[in-house]
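Thought: the user wants the 3D structure for the chain below. I'll pass the sequence to the structure tool as-is, report back what it returns, then summarize two notable features.
Action: structure_tool
Action Input:
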Amino acid sequence: MPGSRRRACPDRPGRFADPTALTLLRPDEREAVQWVRDGVPPRTWRQRIDYETVRAAAELMAPRTIAIDDAIRAHPSRQLVILGAGLDGRAWRMPELAGVAVFEVDQPATQQDKRERAAGLPGTPPRFVPVDFGRDRLAATLAAHGHRADLATTWVWEGVVPYLTRAEVAATVAELATCSAPGSRLVVNFQSHAASTALGRVVARLLMASTGRSRLTYEIAERGNGVTSLTVTHELEGAPQTLAQVAGEVEGAGGGWAEILSDLKSLLETGSPLYA
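Observation:
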């Protein structure tokens, strides 16, 4: 259900409204959003999991979106770059961006999907900057699409940092610094690592498996000399979006159970997580 969490955020007159919301969702993705907006929990287990997932995330995303929108308005720049944009609708819904060069950076496949979804939206679309983060240099690719390093830029990095390692965060910030003129600003959200964060990811995967869209099995076996092995198998044929995330095809996602369990193990044993 990509993008459905922000779409489920209730309109807050004078503070937040997203007219791009339903247009950017496909028909099958709108159902859970409508349940949340109507405040009517469904009865079946699978639908209730969808409802609760979207509802909980929407409660967090509304204030986060408002805070970032306010930061953009408070210090206007001639250029706005949204990193890992996904289904972000700011280029269309924020009148303050009229006359601003808006760039959206994301994986090529993600942007192709976005273009198809946004075809019906009125107004000027952003400049799509497809980036293969494992191969392309961000500054050079942005420049090739018209970004000017001699002009101040507002950078928006929303909902991505929690999925990156410290090294990846540091490398990205260093890259941004090479193409940020004086007066540029980085607007970023992040969360402090805690055991509850790692456990929450495990619980979320287990809940998804319980809906029948995927199948999760695990095997614990003694290997001798005090060594125990854990084998986790998560079949995701019925959950294509989760499969794409685990495969690293979605910006800010990837690694799957190997990273989740390694992160949790490190946190419990040393007090320090593996990921930023």
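Final Answer: Structure generated. The first strand starts at residue 79 and ends at 83. The chain has two domains: 4-188, 195-270.
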